[in-house]
Amino acid sequence: TNEDLLVRSLPAQSYIDPSLYEAERKHLLGPSWQLVGHESQLLVGSDSAPATYIAETISGWPTIIVRSSKTGRINAYHNVCRHKGGPLEWDNTTGSCDLHGLKCKYHGWAYSLEGKLVGVPAFSDKSA
Hints:
Number of helices: 1
Strand order of the largest sheet: 3-2-1-4
Radius of gyration: 20 Å
Distance between the termini: 83 Å
Order of helices and strands: HEEEEEEE
Helix content: under 10%
Shape: elongated
Strand content: 25-35%
Number of strands: 7
């Protein structure tokens, strides 16, 4: 019958239920690959753009993807500083950075393109 051929959708509440969205983030979106951009958006190779990035929020998680002209390697991280959770780059942006890496927009903590903390402003090793 024609009724057997009807396609049914989820109830309307399913599209706006915050608890369902959180369950989808945790069990469906979080453990799977998500598209942020194409590698051609991460062009590098000139002195003016030794490293490039894409910063996006994917399913509620701030994400940054960086590519170094030195190695050509692409790395992805949470776009948050471990100090106070500020962004390393503004959300929904693309751009270039130097090979020294990324800096927190609020307090200037610095990270290498490999994700390692490499600098904290106004901190000195007093044990030396």
